[in-house]
Design brief:
The structure is a single chain. The protein is α+β, with helices and mostly antiparallel strands. The chain has two domains: 3-82, RimP-like superfamily, N-terminal (GMP Synthetase, Chain A, domain 3), CATH 3.30.300; 93-163, Ribosome maturation factor RimP, C-terminal domain (SH3 type barrels), CATH 2.30.30.180. The chain has four helices and eight strands; from the N terminus they run αββαβαβββββα. It has helices spanning 3-19, 53-70, 93-98, 155-163; strands at residues 22-30, 38-46, 77-82, 103-112, 115-126, 129-134, 137-142, 146-151. The strands form two sheets. The chain has a five-stranded antiparallel sheet. A three-stranded mixed sheet has the order 1-2-3, covered by helices on one side. A hairpin with a 2-residue loop joins strand 5 (115-126) and strand 6 (129-134). Helix 1 (3-19) packs across helix 2 (53-70). The model has no long low-confidence stretch (mean pLDDT 91).
């Protein structure tokens, strides 16, 4: 799925997701083996970072109608609505602020300091730069160059999850 199609789908469904009281985290398409339907994955969460099964079902029902009417995908697909999970992807600039202090993996489109992959402590942001501490060295990574980023499963992250109401 091209980035422009994911952007189009996000633009179509985001107002409905927000009207239901949730925030869109990510839209992604996963290809399946030849002959099988692909999966359109929609990740969403409440403002406090939580999500329930009922919330996923509600979003699924509402956006299915929009996707059926607008028909942005020209092949067969299965819609999957989920929470970002514990080792969540970081897709919005605010995610890098909200999860400062946790171990994170970041992959860049363009190398910074001769490297594209970073793993270390997320330190927040400074304007459009994501700040990371990797082995005691501070790195400033341009947000717009981040290809993918996610939290790393650690004991601290597990403690955060058990502290949040579901």
């Amino acid at each position: 799925m091209s980035a422009s199609l994911t952007t189009k789908i996000a633009t179509l469904i985001e107002p409905t997701i927000e009207a239901l009281g949730y925030e869109l985290v990510r839209v992604q398409m996963f290809s399946s083996p030849k002959g099988e339907a692909s999966t359109l994955q929609i990740m969403a969460e409440a403002e406090d970072g939580t999500m329930t099964v009922e919330g996923c079902a509600e979003i699924s029902r509402e956006i299915s109608v929009i996707l059926d009417v607008e028909d942005p995908i020209d092949s067969e697909y299965v819609l999957e609505v989920s929470s970002p999970g514990l080792d969540r992807p970081l897709t919005r600039l605010k995610d890098f602020v909200n999860y400062a202090g946790y171990e994170t993996k970041v992959e860049l489109q363009q190398a910074v300091n001769n490297r594209k992959r970073y793993r270390g402590m997320l330190m927040g942001t400074n304007e459009n730069l994501v700040l990371m501490d990797v082995d005691g060295e501070r790195h400033e990574l341009p947000f717009e160059d981040i290809l993918k980023a996610k939290l790393v499963m650690t004991d601290e992250l597990m403690a955060l999850a058990t502290a949040k109401p579901s």
